[in-house]
Design goal:
metal-binding, binds zinc ion, mainly alpha
Length: 277
């Protein structure tokens, strides 16, 4: 049977991050960490935020969307040489820069959208802007979204991307395993995505090493395809569980920081709005 073209195209796209569950967890942790002022805007809208947190992964039929979810560091010479503006990115590596990922700039844009939403006084707009911002913030906390070897293709570990961000989360993550961290105002929030990405990038070597270690007992079928069993997943989770939980916790915290700072930037608007006199 011929594989439909659409499926081939989908397979060629960069993989989505965290899966739906991880994106929902990020939102839940963030809202839990908010102080009462901004938190009031989301009362009764928590599900709305979570339900739309994966929307950007469904926009990938637009070929410009894929690179909005990651940022490859190697083309720039590693984490110490990252460009801060799109102009710098172009100057460093030329017209190819967009394909290497633009997530930090997308976060800046979506954060400004959230400020506008708070200013508009429309709580459903705030919920939607938060959901979209949450997606890209969460993506920066997936280590494999910071490297050209994003699916282990350079190290013979194809599929490690979804094994880490979806496979482990879906199998083992339980909501009460992670406590939300309280939001902190951060006037430098627009500079933070680079810090989040660098911290994620530092986790890549151990993640790949642990996947290889977990795979040591994995048998191959006649075609050389790995037949991963429960043993693989248990070993991978034992080694990477703390990193998965830690990154989700940080994603929630950093999203909460971004929401709090957007609310402050908008002039700390109250919800519900005061009655007109
Ligand atoms: Zn994504």
């Amino acid at each position: 049977m011929k594989t439909p073209l659409l499926l081939l195209l989908l397979a060629a796209l960069p993989l989505s991050a965290w899966g739906d569950k991880g994106h929902r967890v990020t939102c839940a942790l963030a809202l839990e960490g908010l102080p009462p002022g901004p938190r009031a805007w989301y009362v009764g809208r928590e599900a709305e935020v979570e339900d739309h947190a994966s929307d950007p992964d469904h926009w990938r039929s637009d070929h410009k969307e894929g690179p909005r979810h990651f940022f490859d560091m190697e083309p720039y010479g590693g984490p110490d040489h990252l460009p801060r503006t799109l102009e710098q990115a172009r100057a460093q590596i030329g017209g190819d820069y967009y394909r290497k990922g633009v997530v930090p700039w997308i976060i800046q844009d979506r954060w400004r959208d959230l400020v506008d939403a708070f200013r508009s006084g429309d709580a459903s707009r705030v919920a939607m802007a938060t959901a979209i911002l949450s997606h890209y913030v969460a993506d920066t906390h997936v280590p494999l979204h910071t490297t050209e070897n994003h699916d282990g293709q350079a190290t013979g570990q194809r599929g490690v991307h979804s094994r880490w961000e979806s496979g482990l989360v879906e199998r083992y993550y339980s909501q009460d395993a992670v406590k939300a961290l309280p939001a902190e105002a951060d006037p430098g929030i627009l500079d933070r995505p680079w810090d989040w990405l660098r911290a994620s990038h530092a986790l890549v070597p151990q993640l790949l090493e642990d996947d290889r270690a977990a795979d040591r007992t994995t048998p191959l079928d006649g075609q050389g395809k790995a037949l991963r069993s429960q043993a693989y997943w248990m070993i991978f989770w034992a080694r990477q569980g703390p990193a998965v939980k830690g990154q989700l916790r940080l994603a929630g915290k950093h999203l909460a920081d971004a929401i709090l700072q957007a609310w402050i930037e908008a002039g700390k608007p109250g919800w519900p709005p005061p009655p007109r006199s």
